[in-house]
Amino acid sequence: MKRTLAQMADMCGGTLSDVALYSEVIAEGVFTDSRKPLAGSLFIPLVGERFDGHEFVLNCLEQGAAGAMWQKDHGVPPQGAVILVEDTLVALQKLASAYLSENKASVVGITGSNGKTTTKDIVDALLSTTFNVHKTQGNFNNHIGLPLTVLSMAPDTEIIILEMGMSGRGEIHDLSVIAQPDVAIITNIGESHLLQLGSRLEIARAKTEISAGMKPGGLLIYNGDEPLIAQVLEEPATKQPDGMKRFTFGLEEDNDDYPTGLMNAPNGMVFTTKQSRDKAYTLPLLGTHNVINCLAAMAVARHFGVTPEHMEEGLSQLRLTGMRIEVTQAVSGLTLLNDAYNASPTSMRAAIDVLEGLKGYRMKVAVLGDMLELGPDEKQLHHEVGTYITPAKLDRVLVYGALSLHIAEGAKKHMSAEAVHVFENKEELTRYLLEQLHPKDVVLFKASRGLKLEEVAQALQTAPLHNRVD
């Protein structure tokens, strides 16, 4: 974003401190982290429970910032190019929304309990074969990250892909109103945020808020296997744009698109769909659940006129955000499946299914950790994941974390006691793996981010195994 300070003040509803002196000053981009001042950019000081960016406004101006915002209830601003606003966060969001309107880029919004980031990456891969695309980086998917993503968009962007996360009701609504999507995806409704929302129905209501800010005639693409989404869409309280179109995807044959054929490939999946029965696509990701994510992404691509040939090309060039069933080969020859970025019962079962589908390995091992923020039923939900595990799916289960003890107890319903192991620290877990594993084994790592289970995967990446006997 490149605008004069006068234009930025007008876009966010603020007032420039000295119009005569600063109105024609050009700011290129914005920043909110005072530790990384950007010369020539606009500093937006945000206010939180434990921080106040206003303390660093003067320093940022002295370090070469083109200007800064200043919240009116914070007293007299320092001398310099300052845009006075009622609330700096609201001003940031207004600035982003105005920039989107001026830019004319089409907007794709993506939400859901699981698969948001993977779906975003697939949508990006497909659309980038034909359009100039900008997308959410990392986890910049909240009330601050989304507007910052918008404001980092290049002027020639044709389509922007915005991931939308949440922790409670109303948050997706606000993000949708800022972004005003032309197309929106709801990947699924899982158990994440049960702690905050209490039920899957409330989670469905929260995710379906993405329709609130959609443009008239917009396209909502959602998982048709989840009846709660259709139920919420029929509720009078659900805000939807005039003329909204719907497209469903999933495994069931009553969806607008579903897999008509599925086959495991060495490092991914080969599939055909209802929408493309005569053409097989190769997705370089493991798991049926990722094929389902891909169906949603392909619906977006078709909406924008991307050809089947370009979709095939896009899938071949797919690059994912890290730790989402990231397949790597350790120096020992061991195969590692790192899916330790996040976890819920739905995604945990999907990862176990991926492990079950792999062929040609001596032993299949799952290293599972706690799933966080599941609310009062967290112990039961962990136990149910454990009961999902059978000898047909994998050979050994190793758990780490207080809640994962319930996974172990559930697993013992079908697995032998010798196949289920509990660890209290990562050092013991790592040591056991190095002693027990063979180069022809495959290991899955799955847990919520707070467990940092990827540290064990990283240790196995370079360490020699003790068991070298076939």
Query: What Rg is obtained from the alpha carbons, in whole angstroms?
Result: 24 Å
CATH superfamily of the largest domain: Mur-like, catalytic domain
Count of structural domains: 3
User: What is the CATH T-level topology of the largest domain?
Assistant: UDP-N-acetylmuramoyl-L-alanine:D-glutamate ligase
Shape by Cα distribution: globular
Cα-to-Cα separation, first versus last residue: 59 Å
Q: Helix coverage percent of residues?
A: 25-40%
Q: Helix/strand-derived class?
A: alpha/beta
* Count of discrete alpha- or pi-helical segments spanning 4 or more residues: 17
- Average pLDDT metric: 94
β-strand percent reads 15-25%
Number of beta strands: 22
Characterize the biggest β-sheet: 6 strands, parallel
> Spatial order of the strands in the main sheet?
9-10-8-11-12-13
- Could you list the spans in which at least 5 consecutive residues all have pLDDT below 50? none
The CATH architecture of the largest domain would be 3-Layer(aba) Sandwich
CATH class of the largest domain: Alpha Beta
Describe this structure as you would to a colleague:
There is one protein chain. By secondary structure, this protein is α/β, with parallel strands linked by helices. The protein has three domains: 2-86, MurE/MurF, N-terminal domain (Udp-n-acetylmuramoylalanyl-d-glutamate--2,6- Diaminopimelate Ligase, Chain: A, domain 1, 3-Layer(aba) Sandwich); 104-316, Mur-like, catalytic domain (UDP-N-acetylmuramoyl-L-alanine:D-glutamate ligase), CATH 3.40.1190.10; 326-462, Mur ligase, C-terminal domain (Protein-Tyrosine Phosphatase, Chain A, Alpha-Beta Complex). Helix content is 34%, strand content 21%. The protein has 17 helices and 22 strands. The strands form five sheets. The protein has a six-stranded parallel beta sheet, with helices on both faces. The chain has a six-stranded mixed beta sheet with strand order 17-18-22-19-20-21, with helices on both faces. Helix 15 (404-411) links the parallel strand 20 and strand 21. It starts with a strand and ends in an 8-residue tail after the last helix. The model has no long low-confidence stretch (mean pLDDT 94).
